[in-house]
Design brief:
Layout (H helix, E strand, L loop, with lengths): L4 E2 L3 H28 L5 H26 L5 E2 L4 E5 H15 L6 E4 L9 E5 H17 L6 E9 L2 E8 L6 H8 L16 H10 L3 E7 L3 E9 L3
Parallel strand pairs: 4-6
Antiparallel strand pairs: 1-2, 3-5, 6-7, 7-9, 8-9
Length: 230
């Protein structure tokens, strides 16, 4: 069941604001790069640029509401709605391609023929945040010139989202701790984003589940399984 209302302490409010500040970084980086390098934008690029700007506005609006709301009875600031997961992936990937273009990271995603049916019941901010941080984690735990493949499979009214990289992989002992719910950082340059356990909790809130597999020295695979709307 999705949580639509919750009470938040001052500490939680501050943590939410810190997360919001972090979330702003990716779309702002994308906007700065494209504004300085782009000359003739395609219709798709203009649409994605507009979507990135809208994302910044939503994040800032959320932060403002968090600052001025009644912390004893706070309702979620973004609405639960029907969202096309494939379109969200395309938008977030477009940001990452610009953000990491100097690292020669290759992102690969081919929308399935049934992309219009890849619908989930969620908050747009939640999905964008999860995808953005999962891709950041994959990049930061990998070497330059790595490949990150994203795919969606629709099966038995469930969406299987997979993020596979050919980076450094995760040692067995670290992987076991992650699976056991222990908060730990591995291969990341900073600890400012959502951790694996936070992402796992967010997926669980959406009625889904998250799994991780990795071979040290070869790469990793994250799989998120979400109920779809048919």
């Amino acid at each position: 069941m999705l949580v639509t209302e919750q009470k938040i302490s001052k500490t939680s409010l501050l943590e939410g604001l810190k997360m919001g500040v972090h979330d702003i970084r990716s779309p702002i980086t994308f906007l700065k790069v494209i504004q300085t390098t782009a000359t003739n934008l395609s219709t798709k690029e203009k649409n994605l640029l507009e979507a990135a700007t809208d994302r910044i506005i939503r994040i800032v609006d959320s932060m403002a509401k968090l600052l001025y709301c009644n912390s004893e009875n706070y309702s979620e600031v973004s609405k639960v709605e029907v969202i096309n997961l494939s379109l969200v992936i395309e938008r977030v990937l477009f940001e990452k391609q610009y953000e990491y273009k100097n690292m020669n990271i290759k992102f690969s995603y081919v929308a399935p023929v049934y992309a219009d049916d890849c619908l989930v019941h969620s908050r747009i901010d939640d999905l964008e945040r999860m995808l953005s941080n999962l891709l950041n984690n994959a990049v930061e735990a990998s070497e330059e010139n790595c490949t990150i493949n994203i795919s969606i499979e629709l099966k038995n009214k469930m969406l299987y989202l997979r993020i596979v990289d050919n980076g450094k992989g995760i040692p067995v002992e670290i992987l076991q701790k992650l699976r056991n719910g222990i908060t730990i950082t591995f291969g990341k340059k900073s600890g400012q984003g959502m951790g694996f356990q936070q992402i796992k909790q967010a997926v669980t809130k959406l009625g889904g589940r998250l799994t991780i597999n990795s071979v040290f020295g070869t790469g990793s695979e994250i799989q998120i399984i979400l109920p779809t709307i048919m």
